[in-house]
Amino acid sequence: MQYVWAFVIGGAICVLGQLLFDVVKLTPAHTMSTLVVLGAIVDGINVNGKSLYDRFIEFAGAGATVPITSFGNALVHGALQEYELHGWIGIITGIFDVTSAGVSAAIIFSFLAAVVARPKG
To answer: Is the pLDDT reported for residue 104 higher than 90?
Structure first.
């Protein structure tokens, strides 16, 4: 049943993004930024000592961790964890600590794709 919920929730997040793109007429960059900020806001909401996005991940699994909203979740989650450990400086270091591997992979694979595909633009 978890596969079904992951599919439904992940699909719902994608439908939300498509609606922002088609109906609201946001650019792809604005749509992506909106979904990242939405994920960050949902992670910042605590219910009984646990973030709402964490509860969402427990329910939907990969349906909540694969879409771009999880990047906003990771940013806020890392910043809040490091803030508790190191104070205000932890907000800055926590953001990079959690997301650096994903950002680095995106840069490296984009470079390799550009080398192989020889972009025209």
So the answer is: no
